Amino acid sequence: MKKTLNLAMLGAALASSLPALAQDPVRIGFITTLSTPAGYLGEDARDAFRLAMDQEGGKLGGVPVELVVEDDGLQPAKGKQIIDRMSLDGISLYTGVMFSNVLAAVVSGATQGDRFYISTNAAPSNLAGAQCKPNYFAASYQNDVPHEMAGVAANDLGYKKMVILAPNYQAGRDALAGFKRTFKGEVTEIYTKLNQLDFSVELARIRSLNPDAVFQFHPGGGGINFAKQYGSSGLAKSIPMVVPVFSMDERMLAATGNVAEGVNVVSGWNPQSDNPANQAFVKAFTEKYNRAPTMYAAQGYDTARLIGSALKATNGDIKNAEAFRRALRDARFDSVRGDFRFGSNQHAVIDWHLLKVQAGADGKLTEVPVKTIAKAQVDSYAAQCAL
Amino acid sequence: MLLLEQLLNGLQYSALLFLLASGLTLIFGIMGVINLAQGAFYMVGAFCAAYTAIASGSFWLGGLAALAGAALYGLVIETGIIRRLYNRDHLDQVLATLAVVFFTNELITLLFGRSPPAMPTPDWYNVFVEVLPGLMYPVSRMLFIGAGLLVALGMWLLINHTRLGMLIRAGADDHEMVGALGVNISRLYTLVFVFGCMLCGLAGFMAAPLLSVEIGMGEKVLITTFVVIVVGGVGSVRGALAGALLIGMVDSLGRAYIPPLLDQLLPADVSGALSGGLVSASAYIVMALVLLVRPRGLLPARA
């Protein structure tokens, strides 16, 4: 009896290990932010990444993959711990970090030796310029570009005098600097506090300054607060807003309600773009998760398919770093953001769009495309990168 | 006119801080419990308000749900957890109530998901009233100030002019003696705790249409709430009122007037960074100054 049992177990073990012998799944470390109020960013990127895998039956580019997801809790130290653990575990392909401060703690570990990091979102300027790395790719954008594009959009809209606001921390100061780099008119800068809840004081100042328009960078809850209070203060009716998509993504729009109508949003992804990859993605994501995808989801999906294209080209052999890097740079996939290529510094070169918050076909507010602000926009740091 | 408007804005922020701080200080002053989970009840209130208002279409029903939800959740937490902490030291209380914060965040995520809901508001809510000639002020923010004033008045009446208030004051000084007189001190504590939670629920309801209703929204106000209590004097409701007014005003007026002032005095690239830092630190600077002069706060519980 015992013997047959052992035999059966041996048989089962053999049977289950046979396909594994054929090809071990490529393990991908997905370090992202799932808790804290910003948890929905990581959730969207992860869900979209999984969607791409599910559509291929657990594969990317025909190569079986396994996604190992961990929550960094928006803490750089925790991100560092996770990367250390994952690399001990033999994982050598990473993605998923949402915030620049976490990325800063993760990136050196994630690009050491033959390890690769492909950013779904955060892309700080230092890694785009002088400190660019051969094994670091930003499939999203470069952090400054959305703000620079907002400046261009404001010029196009004919605004001459603007009030620009951001929280007083690195990303906020970068946002205002990026905007000022391209905006030709006159600006008044207002720094808010990080995690500030109420903007009544700033709104009163805006009213007294009476600008042509307002630019503000407040991601997550702060942006919802700002837009809600901007709307209920009556300013929205007289002074339009131009914001990067971080200050008004689709989820924030749902939380802000009707007062967000008319906000100009600058984004690298156009949810209604008629390229077939995007149409299929939006439909599949909405059906599977029962909510509209955000830009974070679009970028997560693109990242998955980018990795898929490189896995396909190298037959899943990521140990040959040189070949894998070349395949990533080629980026042979149909991006949901339209034309996609990597610049010389391995940062995404994409088109940028102006969207406007308006009632969609179903009467609900959505971000409706107005026009393309820039085609194939290269970031301001690419020339400093020696790759 | 702008100054007046900024004063009103400061008053409104003070009202939010007072609603949160008064419950916290009541619970500390009377039961000696440091309750880090105060923000969790605020969040529960806001979520109850938003989802009830969405489901029923009634703004006021949302308010009722916020009070009831926060009070009910407070009752569960008090009988399940806080009750065991009365005689433990503050470290245990901090750890246990911090656990309640994490637990509540996960619970709300499981129940409602991560997408922040939009609290629907009736038409009158977005109307402006001419407070003084030339000064239009939104009803939404006046409602906030009104709620803060009402609660301040109500608590003064409750504590100084009712039998319950007398017991509360007596219980704060010597709960064993009050117990020996035949008063059910444990029930009194439960009542105070639930009342404190209800005040947080009220703050959540008031905040829901103006602020983002999201997981972890309580933690964002927690630190400022503690600053208010320390400035006002730990454990004193009058102190909480004074602290809330001081911090709310300093924060608002600082944000309004420090940056333009420095812009005039200093070159642009220096003043931007400096005023940003100064504004961020203003509440803490005030706290340090107050503690320097009055180490126990402005109006301590037992001077």
From TrEMBL, chain A:
Keywords: Signal. Residues 25-360 form the Leucine-binding protein domain. SUPFAM superfamilies: Periplasmic binding protein-like I. Residues 1-22 form the signal peptide. The keyword Signal applies. Belongs to the leucine-binding protein family. This is ABC transporter substrate-binding protein. It comes from Metapseudomonas lalkuanensis.
From TrEMBL, chain B:
The keyword Cell membrane applies. GO terms for biological process: amino acid transport. CDD domains: TM_PBP1_LivH_like (cd06582). It is a multi-pass membrane protein. Its main location: membrane. Keywords: Amino-acid transport, Cell membrane, Membrane, Transmembrane, Transmembrane helix, Transport. The keyword Translocase does not apply. Belongs to the binding-protein-dependent transport system permease family. LivHM subfamily. This is Branched-chain amino acid ABC transporter permease. The lineage of its organism: Bacteria, Pseudomonadati, Pseudomonadota, Gammaproteobacteria, Pseudomonadales.
